[in-house]
Amino acid sequence: TGAERMRQGALERAQGGTLFIDELVDLRIDLQPRLLRVLEEREVRRVGGNTAIKLDVRIIAASRFDLWREVQEKRFREDLYFRLNVVPLKAIPLRERKDDIPLLIDSFIRDCCAENGFSPKSISPEALHSLVEYSWPGNVRELRNVVERMVVLAGEKIGAADLPEEITGRHEESEANGHALAPQSLEQFKKK
User: Which of 77, 89, 118, 156 is most buried, judged by most C-beta within 10 A?
Assistant: First the structure.
């Protein structure tokens, strides 16, 4: 309604290929029937258009939540769940794949150094051990961000002192002992 011109949507742009829908659970319940209809009829209409466009698109959808539980709690449509649940894949959390962590860290360090124009950096065994032992609630995305932060802020070798507080627990330890972190002047912060 009110469309002044026709435009391609994501499904049409994915024609002949694959459309990845990340965080499917965030799709509002009132929009879920529309997606179901597209999947069933395998056609769409452009905004402002009158003709149906046949689709040849594979859909891959991801969710951080258990979709079946979302169905049971009436936050996700059961019919859409069964339509999408053709070949379910469960990604194993990073905390359960500790052997992958050093390989990912090496790759992320190389990538981040190249992206930022830095000469290659290495990581100390102590820092690597701490990173492997961390639980990684944010999985690979969190690991990538932590490595990028360390690459940008550390010297040639990333050491244990370069690890963020959420991994080392330094912040919690100081608060548990009744000591707040010492305030820093702006100059001290900039220098650090």
Answer: 77
